[in-house]
Write a structure and sequence with these properties.
Elements (H helix, E strand, L loop, with lengths): L10 H10 L19 H11 L3 H20 L3 H10 L4 H10 L4 H17 L9 H9 L4 E2 L9 E6 L10 H15 L3 H6 L1 E6 L5 H5 L3 H16 L36 E5 L10 H6 L28 E4 L4 H6 L18 H9 L7
Parallel strand pairs: 2-3, 3-4, 4-5
Antiparallel strand pairs: 1-2
Helix pairs in contact: 1-2, 3-4, 3-5, 3-6, 4-6, 5-6, 6-11, 7-8, 7-14
């Protein structure tokens, strides 16, 4: 007869777990600025899904610092870069990587190596990368950050492709804006635990958009996607639907740790049909009811995705003109009208001010 160990669960803990099943947008802290105090249910979520406790935080940070020194001393070039960049940084910064890997020290270190590798491979994205350098891009609405979290506590980012003029705002400028804004928002512990969701509205997508992106930029996007996958925790298998459209996001592939948790992981939501798209896995698209008109002929994009499989795109949800699922997932009161919500279109300049204030510090 097998025996096991049991732990008494307090009434408070039971109440917090019950609360997690019935959250609303009003149950979470502010998006902008530091987190003054984590909500009780978020603390419980971190404990249940990320294995986070006070003792675990202290011991894991200590172990990660020791590992950084050890791996760097072994001569690994990326490990050396990790030690150079993070060796003298405060504990809260290391906690971002530990949370993104559920306090698995080895995997957190690998995530840090991916972070420095991306910056090493694409220095043009980080040269003179200050809030002021990207403020004009964010003030143009690329991306929009909603002032309210969704019901799961995630920060909601919006990208509306219809009015994007590639000559006015380049692909790289958008990538740089995402790099800055995500780093800034991740200073908030509630965001580190709950993560982000990026909603892309592809209504108005044209062949001008498709043809205006160079193969080298697509390669950069793919590399960012791979970093994003490594940065999104272990929730890759949750609610996978259809992997469609290579240009899934101009910069949702985060070169920084993002954790969403198994229940409601970080996600990319594609909103409205993509008329000129290349389906990554046609058999899956067919299973999801994708019509033939949605499969474009952008053959030049295929080499960038050679060898990719479904697990590279774990959290892409496609909503065409059937928006029932989309509206169940997101509260219409926080979505602007151009994303089929009830709120006013966002004030982009006000968003930039809330994110950056008067700061101008290089990342």
């Amino acid at each position: 007869m097998q025996t096991g160990s049991y732990r008494m669960v307090s009434e408070e803990e039971q109440a917090m777990r019950s609360k997690l099943e019935h959250l609303t947008v009003k149950d979470h802290g502010p998006v902008f600025g530091p987190c003054a105090k984590l909500p009780g249910h978020t603390v419980q979520k971190a404990k249940d899904e990320l294995n986070e406790t006070d003792e675990r935080r202290a011991s894991s940070v200590k172990d990660l610092r020791a590992m950084m020194k050890e791996r760097a001393a072994e001569g690994d070039d990326l490990a050396k870069l990790v030690q150079e960049r993070f060796g003298d940084k405060p504990d809260p910064l290391l906690l971002r990587f530990l949370r993104a890997r559920k306090f698995d020290t080895s995997r957190a270190h690998e995530l840090m190596k991916g972070y420095v590798r991306f910056r090493k491979d694409y220095p043009e994205l980080f040269e003179n990368l200050t809030p002021e350098a990207v403020r004009s891009t964010i003030e143009a609405g690329y991306p929009v950050v909603l002032p309210s979290r969704d019901k799961y506590g995630r920060v909601v980012l919006l990208f509306n492709i219809e009015n994007w003029d590639l000559e006015e705002i380049t692909f790289d400028e958008i990538l740089r804006a995402y790099c800055v804004i995500l780093e800034k928002l991740l200073e908030n512990e509630e965001t580190q635990i709950n993560g982000f969701v990026l909603i892309e509205n592809f209504r108005g997508f044209s062949m001008q958009h498709a043809s205006g992106i160079k193969p080298a930029e697509l390669k950069k996007m793919v590399d960012m996607l791979q970093v994003r996958k490594r940065s999104c925790g272990d929730a890759a298998s949750h609610r996978v639907r259809v992997y469609k459209w290579l240009f899934v996001s101009p910069a949702g592939f985060v070169p920084c740790p993002v954790q969403g948790g198994p229940r409601h992981p970080p996600a990319l939501v594609l909103h409205h049909h993509l008329q000129h798209s290349e389906t990554l896995h046609e058999e899956q698209a067919a299973g999801a009811g994708t019509s033939a008109r949605d499969v474009g002929n952008l053959l030049t994009l295929k080499p960038c995705f050679k060898g990719f499989s479904p697990h590279h795109f774990p959290q892409v949800f496609v909503h065409g003109d059937e928006l029932d699922g989309y509206m169940k997932e997101f509260d219409a009161d926080i979505l602007p009208v151009d994303f089929d919500g009830k709120a006013a279109i966002s004030d982009y300049r006000a968003i930039a001010t809330k994110v950056f204030g008067s700061e101008d510090t290089a990342l």
